[in-house]
Amino acid sequence: MGFFNLLAGQNIIDVAVDGIGAVELKWIGYVIKWIFDLFSGMPGAIALGAIVFTLALKTLVLPLDVYSRVKMKKQSLLMGSMREDMEKLQKQYANDKNMYNQKVMELQRAHGYNPLGACLPTLISLIIFMVVFSSFSQYSQYANLNSYNQMTVKYSLAVQEYVLTSDGDESDNSLFLIAAVEDGLNNPVPTTDLIRAKDGDGNYIGGFNDINGEPVEIYGYYVDYAKFGEYYAGLSGVEELPQNWSSLNEVEKNAFVKDYVRIGARQAAADYYHAHSAETSFPAANWWIGNVWYPDSMLNKEVPSFSGFRSAISRAAGSIDANYEESYNEVTYNLQEEKNTYNGYFVLIVLAIGLMFLQQFIMMRSQKAANELSTVDGQAATTNKVMMVMMPIIFGFFSFMYSAAFSIYMIVNTIYSLISTLIINKVVSVRFDDDLEKQALNKAAGRAGRKRLK
User: Fold this and answer.
1) Who's near 81: CB < 8 A, 6+ residues apart?
2) pLDDT (tens digit per residue) in 189-246
3) pLDDT at 226
4) In terms of domains, do 16 and 36 share one?
5) Cα separation of 113 and 219, whole Å?
6) Of 265, 68, 15, 51, nearest in space to 158 by CA
7) E strands, 28-105, where?
8) Cβ(352)–Cβ(415) under 8 Å?
9) Is 342 helix (H, G, I), strand (E, B) or coil?
10) 151 domain-assigned
């Protein structure tokens, strides 16, 4: 192979790119991943996964929601049935809140009203939401990081097509690169003892080798100029080698070789991204949202800058060293169009805010009596009006700051809750009215019986 000739100069190039350590998922993250993987390969796979996950979760906790909604509606109807007495108390104790509260509690106990009856299920639902929120956020960062790391794998595999290994054919002119590793004295030396390390999915990892069972870092690649010249001369459809190729110095030759190797590697990384872009688009490929793992916002690009990428994954992966920027820019080099394309137009953000406002409005209307009568000065109604505004703003913030996939979760969650609330309210109202009618009939029958006895 002529290592001594290679070592005579410093003809070494560096075209390695660095992957970033993986995010460790929690158990619910693996559940999310399993559901998303069910739709792998389908257009809009991630959006479909988010919808199915939300429907499955909401169905699972439906008994809690039903119990909570039924209790809340019953309490509101009970409060409505006490309206006349409550309004009298409001007038009687308009200047004495403590006495009003005491009398109200006595009245509520007499009618079987318990304001805390729906609190526990509601609290459990809130805890579940926060757990899902955290897991969804973590999984979006996991997905972004995994996508980048897979692109680095494809990039490195493209480089490896030119690298001579111990299994390679030395007569093959396409194998014009020899990996360089450290000799223990901080000096790079060439080696063909090259067995690519693999990740947990069996994919090759860029930037590292496994020599004698130990992972070692590649410091670059030595170039066999003669082989490169023969290989390049045999290609069709490319520019010829510079006429003065043989007279170029190592720096100039290395620049030419490096540029050539990078062409295929950059395209391999871009091809991987494009092959999976339909899965991360929403609601269909090449339309509206380019990547659901970033917010549906004109302030975000489909493929972000390194600072945007680092910010998106740092919450789960920890602080990302700025030294990764060069590798990131290299791996995403052929994605310039995506780097200049808006990732969305705030559609999901507006939907999340609007639907949450509608849900709060319906809940406030269903609790109208409780809001008006639970305090002597009607302060509860004012507080609920504030909440009707604040909750949509909070949901809008989540949609704006986190992934579009999470926005889809919140929208489907809200729609599910809206439909179930309307159905539950209707059923409870009908049954409550029937119970009141039966009570009235029983009272009338009792009065009629007493008259006959007389």
Assistant:
1) 111, 436
2) 888 887 777 766 666 666 677 777 777 778 889 999 888 888 888 886 666 777 777 7
3) 86
4) no
5) 74
6) 265
7) none
8) no
9) strand
10) yes
C-beta atoms surrounding 186 within 10 Å: 7
One domain for residues 222 and 162: yes
Domain range for residue 234?
3-24+140-276+303-325
CA distance 130 to 247: 66
Q: Residue 219 has what pLDDT?
A: 84
Q: CB under 8 Å to 431, separation ≥6 — which residues?
A: none
What is the maximal distance between C-alpha atoms in the chain? 129
Residues of the chain with confidence (pLDDT) below 50: 1-9, 376
- Residue 167's Cβ-count burial label (10 Å; 0-12, 13-18, 19+) is exposed
- Closest CA relative to residue 368, chosen from 380, 351, 354: 380
Q: Of 325, 356, 387, at which residue does a domain stop? A: 325
* 69-79 pLDDT per residue, tens: 777 777 777 77
3-state DSSP: the chain helix, strand, coil percent, rounded to 5?
Answer: 65, 10, 30
Give the Cα separation of 420 and 437 in Å (integer).
26
Amino acid, single-letter form, for residue 434? D
**What is the pTM (predicted TM-score) of this model?**
0.80
Tokens 């992934």, residue located? 403
In this predicted model, what pLDDT tens digit does every residue of 116-147 receive, in sequence order?
655 666 777 778 878 888 888 888 888 888 89
CB within 8 Å of 388: residues ≥ 6 apart: 357, 360, 361, 364
